Amino acid sequence: MAQVPAALVEAIRSVLGDRARARASLARHTSYRIGGPADLLVVPDTVDELAAVLRAAAAHGVAVTLLGGGSNVLVGDGGIRGVVMRLGRGFAEVDWQETGVRAGAAVQVGQLCRAAVARGLTGLEFAEGIPGTVGGALFMNAGAYGGDVAPVVAAVEGVDARGEPATIDAATLAFAYRRTSLPRGFVVTAVRFRLGQDDATEIHQRMDAARDRRVAAQPHGQANAGSVFKNPAGDHAGRLIEAAGLKGTRAGRARISERHANFIVNEGGARAADVKALMDLAQRVVWERDGVWLEPEVRLVGSW
Questions:
Q1: Which pLDDT tens digit goes with each residue over 139-164?
Q2: Active site includes 10?
Q3: I want to staple 257 with a disulfide (CB 3.0 to 4.6 A). Which of 45, 60, 175, 219 is the partner?
């Protein structure tokens, strides 16, 4: 616990109680089911609690890592130093309007998609089957099959690096492929979506089509973090990795999926080092074969 002073632990526990846990394993909090311990794992339930944690950590010079829903991330076997934050149930509230919705950052984005479709609202159909939370989807500008988050975001609510509540209009955000530029230290607490109305049958059909494509193309039943690499311009990472003959390649208990080469699955008991070894291999072989450097979509965090 050298990275988290006892005074900081005491200060945070005075606010969160047993929702602040030392040396907490992160494997159970990631879709990969991989990851060492956090020095201190905290789960705030309100904006005030979140702000209190940020201010206390800043006062002690300790870094805060936001884990989110734990998808699209690979936590190192050595865990994460400092404070690791997951948003609690208080950030999973949904408030529907006639042609939009305000969704807490901890809401599962796939569930939000299905709920929108059930209300005859269009704009989120592409998200059916995408793992993770609304906050993570915003941060990564999540997308699939020609759709992404950017066009339907109206505003983003959060807490800035000083622990102050703030709202950012979507027009001032810089959305890019699998990335959204947010102010440094900004923690998303809710996203306001601007949705449209359409024929209910057509919306359902689009959502079902997205789900069917995902089921047909992607691995199921084994822990993974979704697409490992971003698609390079004009091509697909999965095609390049498959063309390099790497489907089915193993490192320890991790394997490049035979169903989709841009997925690395945990066969049970894999280490972060196993997944990283396969990522490094794919990058090196594709570079040597095609002259394309694959950029990770999965975020690597923690100690290796």
A1: 989 887 778 899 999 999 999 988 99
A2: no
A3: 219
Q: Please identify which of the residues 21, 55, 178, 214 carries the catalytic annotation.
A: 178
List 114, 227, 255, 271, catalytic entry: 227
- Quote the pTM value: 0.90
Nearest to 157 by CA among 182, 122, 132, 124: 182
Alpha helices in the chain (DSSP H): 6-16, 47-59, 109-118, 134-140, 200-217, 237-243, 272-290
CA-CA distance, 268 to 257, in Å (whole number)?
14
184 noted as active-site residue? no
Burial readout 55-83 (b: 16 or more C-beta within 10 A, e: otherwise): bbbeebebebbbbbbbbbbbbbbebbbbb
Three-state DSSP at 297 gives coil
178 an active-site residue? Answer: yes
Do residues 114 and 207 make contact, with C-beta atoms less than 8 angstroms apart? yes
